[in-house]
TrEMBL record:
GO molecular function, one term: ATP hydrolysis activity
Ranges annotated as spanning the membrane: none
Pfam family name, one: ABC_tran
Family of the protein in this entry: Belongs to the ABC transporter superfamily.
ABC transporter domain mapped to chain residues: 3-220
Protein name (record): NitT/TauT family transport system ATP-binding protein
Stored InterPro entries: AAA+_ATPase, ABC_transporter-like_ATP-bd, ABC_transporter_ATP-bind, P-loop_NTPase
The entry's keywords: ATP-binding, Nucleotide-binding, Transport
SMART domains xref list: AAA
Length: 235
């Protein structure tokens, strides 16, 4: 995808240039994290990729004309009057017969299929949002800070679940986060954006498989990243 220019018009401050010359492509089956300071344009980038914002100059090219693209946002966005299972089934195309039993089991949701969203903690509701995204067997999954404001133990479990699903299904993942540690634990590539207007400041491959990243290896990586990209990663 290529965003040559994305601006917003604001009543009080006029036109603001948010993104310029931001271009990248995603390898099929890869896990990329998009990192940058608060307000630099990460969510705007995802919204453009999802086709939710078409007011930009550039081009978004999906992997194929019938590619399935799923998204998970910070807010689980579940319908409160539908059960967990109904919320997940709502996203399915007609005549789809996904293996929901395995999906619910993988995500630890088997006993909650008949529960309503108000009965769920934020962590569980986020798992349902993940289930809904994976149920359509997406080619591309876009995630916008899906684990923010969870306690660290829950976030850790969710990250492990996401990795398991990603590996099992060969989906191409792009996840927005401002948590560098999270990005280094999950991704096999980091894209860093910064500036106003924001542009790509770094494209960092992380070739070592996630399960082989020891705490020492992670600490070295984080240290190196902090030194190479002090401005982008300080906030
Ligand atoms: N609909 C809008 N109208 C005007 N300005 C907007 C709109 N949406 C976003 N912006 C501005 O565009 C810039 C980028 O916003 P965006 O939400 O993409 O940043 P972000 O990197 O995702 O931030 P955060 O990490 O805090 O979620 C910000 O300055 C924001 O205020």
């Amino acid at each position: 995808m290529r965003i040559d220019a994305k601006d917003f018009d604001r009543v009080e401050s006029g036109r603001i240039a948010v993104l310029r010359d931001l271009a990248f492509s995603l390898e099929p089956g890869s896990f990329t994290c998009l990192i940058g300071p608060s307000g630099c344009g990460k969510t705007t980038t995802l919204r453009i990729m999802l086709g939710l914002d078409r007011d930009f100059r550039g081009e978004v090219r999906p992997p194929s004309h019938d590619a399935r693209i799923a998204a998970v946002f910070q807010e689980p966005r579940l319908l409160p009057w539908r059960t967990v299972e109904q919320n997940v089934r709502l996203a399915l195309p007609k005549n789809a017969t996904p293996d929901l039993d395995t999906l619910f089991e993988t995500l630890g949701l088997s006993s909650m299929r008949s529960s309503y969203p108000e009965e769920l903690s934020l962590g569980l509701a986020r798992r349902v949002a993940l289930a809904r995204a994976f149920a359509i067997d997406p080619d591309v999954l876009l995630l916008d800070e899906p684990f923010v404001s969870l306690d660290e133990a829950t976030a850790k479990r969710m990250r492990a679940l996401l990795l398991r699903l990603w590996r099992g299904r060969g989906v191409t993942v792009l996840m927005v986060t401002h948590n560098v540690r999270e990005a280094v634990a999950l991704a096999d590539r980091l894209l860093l954006i910064d500036g106003r207007p924001a542009h790509l400041t770094g494209d960092v491959p992380l070739p070592l498989p996630q399960e082989m990243r020891t705490p020492e290896h992670m600490a070295t990586l984080l240290d190196d990243l902090g030194k190479t990209y002090p401005d982008t990663l300080q906030s």
